[in-house]
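Chapter summary example.
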Amino acid sequence: MSQTLRNRSVIRVSGQTRALAIVIALVLLAGCVSHAPAVTTPVRTSPSETPANSNSSRCLSLAMYWEARGEGHRGMIAVGSVVLNRVQSRDFPNSVCAVVYQGGEAPPCQFSWWCDGKSDRPRNRSQWLAAQAATEALLSNRSNDPTGGALFFHSTSIRSSWHRTRPRTAKIGNHIFYR
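The structure predicted for these 179 residues follows.
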């Protein structure tokens, strides 16, 4: 009989210990979850960049990568400048991501890579790193706008009628820029 009581005591203590361990684990987990950063694709950020701006940096890097990855640093800076010029304009959304994704995922949209139905994940690591570096450079020295304040651009291989009503500000690589 004392054997049974001892076993029950052990089970009760063991059950209480288990219950206490579960409660402690849940409390710790709740604390971690409430303070855990959002799961996002890693983006190289500058030390002064806040988490709120890292999404903007990613959107800007994606636009620069997809629109000018073959244009080198100056071409990427030019495309990034157009995005930032639009953010400052009353005629466009007031955030980088809203400018980049304006129009939705179906044509017409502002940037063809966004609504072409293909994956938006960068495929070339060195060009993606170059786009991220260009984003950092552009955000750290906003006065370096090689487009002269352009709000629009198109590839030289595309013929469009809308550009006739806008003043041309620059030709950089295979892109022509307009205000």
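To summarize the output: The first helix runs from residue 2 to 35.
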